[in-house]
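Working notes for the structural subgroup meeting. M.R. asked for a predicted model of this chain before we commit to crystallization trials. I am recording the input and output together here so anyone reviewing the notebook later can reproduce the run.

Input as submitted:
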Amino acid sequence: MHSKIWTDMFVLALPVAEKVLRPVVVYFFLVIGLRLAGKRELAQLNPFDLVVLLTLSNTVQNAIIGDDTSVTGGVIGAATLLLVNYLVVRFLFRHERLDRLVEGKESVLIEHGKILEDRLTQEVLTLQELEAAAHKQGFGNLQEVERAVLESGGTISFIAKKPAPEERRHRELLNRLDQLTREITRLRAGEAPPAA
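Returned structure, recorded in token form:
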């Protein structure tokens, strides 16, 4: 009885070479598949995309482990995935052009405060999804956004509009008025104004 438990847990049902090769093939398939699917899949912007990502991991599980459900087989598969990912990331770090090809490039969604509808369509993003992403980053609405970029990793970066020149002048005037008010208060109290 005890011998069967230990055998089931640690004896491989598949050759070690196959246990190593299966995760490598699945890894590269998923990297290429997610690259072709677009940045949206990585961003998980709606429930449908999240369901696809969750079921994708379950779908490829059998391809990675095959008929082997031993602990040893699982450890070999997981270690292979981690090692392959480590090597790929290091390789791409040293080869910038190839990294850009694999990762893709960013997509500008809002430029100079103007929403680029064609880019939203290209990235299969709705205006509501873009606005929801802006809300998550503290923006009240898209009119507050100067620039929005869908990064190659799937996140959306927002840059706020800078205050208009009139608003800046208004703030400067208010600051000067506050300074004058403080100086007048000091003068009335009999203090000398600070040296400028």
